[in-house]
Design brief:
Blueprint (H helix, E strand, L loop, with lengths): L2 E5 L3 E7 L2 E8 L1 H9 L4 E8 L5 H8 L8 E3 L5 E7 L6 E7 L19 E4 L4 H10 L5 E4 L3 H6 L1 H9 L3 E5 H8 L4 H10 L4 E5 L5 E5 L3 E5 L13 H14 L7 H18 L6 H5 L2 H15 L2
Parallel strand pairs: 1-4, 1-8, 2-6, 4-5, 8-9, 9-10, 10-11
Antiparallel strand pairs: 2-3, 6-7, 11-12, 12-13
Helix pairs in contact: 1-8, 3-5, 6-7, 8-9, 9-11
The protein binds adenosine monophosphate.
The site of adenosine monophosphate has 18 residues, from strand 2, helix 1 and helix 8.
Length: 302
Amino acid sequence: MSDILVVGSLAYDSIETPSGKVDRALGGSANYFSLAASLFAKVRVVGVVGEDYEEADYKLLQSRGVDLEGLEKVSGKTFHWEGKYEGDMNEAKTLRTELNVFEHFNPKLPESYKNSSFVFLANIVPALQLEVLNQVKNPQFVGMDTMNLWIDIANADLLKVMKKVDVVLINETEAEMLTGAGNAIEAAAKIVELGPKAVVIKRGEYGFIMFSKEEGYFVLPAFPISKVTDPTGAGDTFAGGFFGYLASRPGKPTVKDMKQACIHGSILASHTIQDFSVKALAKTTLADLEKRLAEYKKVITV
Ligand code: AMP
């Protein structure tokens, strides 16, 4: 089993969906990712929180064996994101982003993190993704996520990161925005031209499209969930399940491994969306995942 280093946001989110509202609930790409990936492998977090970050929220990750040596606490407030979902809920409308302690974050990797073989650059300003990646000695497999904000205001840095990774995981709308493509199929092929060996486009209830230079397209639907309570973190959970699965396998990931990893990520994400914040994900066990995987096989088999 290999170690996974993740850099991403640790946040308090205020979220409104047709099912209700939560204020300053635990969120952030690194939190969702770590909770998901730690079901399979050892996770190391690089990030920053403010003085308001609650003890219970550290403990949640620690209870999953997550290494928090690279998580800094500084004076100021934790990153805060406010979002709203309407209609089919496949896309969040950002109402407010307060970078707070992330504004002056200068990640410095603990020595013990520098030999990590798997690296996931979760959604965070691309300059920070680069800074972290440059400090890892010889990573075996690197992935990244991003979002519309960075495509808009940090495009040049984002393209630099894309050249250095094995896989990009990205939302459908963002993939189209990044490439100017009219649909996810076209966007997938265009993203691979930007550098990565493979791309996974996340399509909410419609599942995912993976495209690799080696084997072309791999497309599957999501596990059918009739009541989505809060889709926040589905993408990061997908990435956590994807990376966790790969890190739990021997050797350098093949395209076939990545296909299985997509299925694991997708099924885990179907748990996350059944409650607000990290509530459902934090309760999900490997046995729950296996059970749903078996049900999923029936859904996609004739
Ligand atoms: P997703 O998996 O795409 O739904 O990611 C949701 C998480 O991303 C939320 O918990 C937010 O705290 C976090 N987030 C939102 N905007 C940003 C941003 N600009 N930088 C880093 N993290 C963000």
